Amino acid sequence: MFDPVTMKLNIDPLIISAMKEDITNEDITTNSVMPDPCQGMAELIAKEAGVLCGIQIFTRVFTLLDDHVFVKTLAKDGDWIESGQVLAVITGDIRTILSGERTALNYLQRMSGIATYTRQSVSFLEGSQITLLDTRKTTPNNRIFEKYAVRIGGGKNHRFNLSDGILLKDNHIGAAGGVKEAIELARRYASFVRKIEVEAETIEMVRDAVEAGADIIMLDNMSIEIMKEAIAVIGGRAKIEISGNVIREKIKELAGLGIDYISSGALTHSAPILDISLKNLHRLQM
Questions:
Q1: pLDDT 10s digits, 250-260
Q2: How far apart are CA 208 and CA 165, in angstroms?
Q3: How far apart are CA 175 and CA 62, in angstroms?
Q4: Residue from 210, 232, 206, 207 nearest 219 by CA
Q5: Which CATH architecture has domain 4-121+272-283?
Q6: What is the value of pTM for the model shown?
Q7: What residue segments make up the domains of the chain, in order of their start?
Q8: Looking at the annotation, which residues are catalytic?
Q9: What number of CA atoms fall less than 13 Å from residue 68's CA on the CB side?
Q10: Which of 266, 259, 178 lies closest to 222 in space, CA to CA?
Q11: How far is 157 from 247, CA to CA, in rounded Å?
């Protein structure tokens, strides 16, 4: 769950921006059929099974529009939900419910989809010591939501942004003139508390990274055979991360390798939404 400070400073502006995208002037459809305030109720219902994530954000969309709307949640983030399950009941001005419906569902469906995909992926690593990580391959302005969903699904976050850690990728290495040069420059520039991770695409790059004292070596887009050779070269002198086109189905075959991390952009860029709907809206007799 997001704390109050994070909600106010980081979450609310993003939700408001999303609402402004959906309502540039007015909700003309709602205003045409509901010109005056009218109390109503609607149910949030799962249409398929999966991991619920984003119920706090779903609720926040409506309360930012109208703080008199009340959302009674019947499930929490991280719960496994079943098709047909009622997840929440919303009570308030029908106009607010109708105007906030799509934006609220967009957040909830997307976040729940990522959490579900992540949990399924993590299950392939049961019994191993490998940590499943996400990447920065996220939807612009939605990273905070998508990385939160990965955690709810049982994965862990890699860097949140470019200020969060040193990761020397192929173009950084090219700019510096080589693996050893890039590591030396990074170590000279960064605080001593920063770990240095370097991406390696060949055995030669792995050797250079080990000799230069990299803390973490990312084996990128290697075959299983080359990975095994690289792991032997590293010999426990650095943490090992595997990356590159790691889809859910591939994770299982990596679980037996002696590595520390697997990073997968698919967790955030390829997870389908979880189908959840707002149904049974009706007026309340006052």
A1: 888 888 898 99
A2: 20
A3: 48
A4: 206
A5: Alpha-Beta Complex (3.90)
A6: 0.94
A7: 4-121+272-283, 125-269
A8: 102, 137, 169, 199, 220
A9: 9
A10: 259
A11: 17
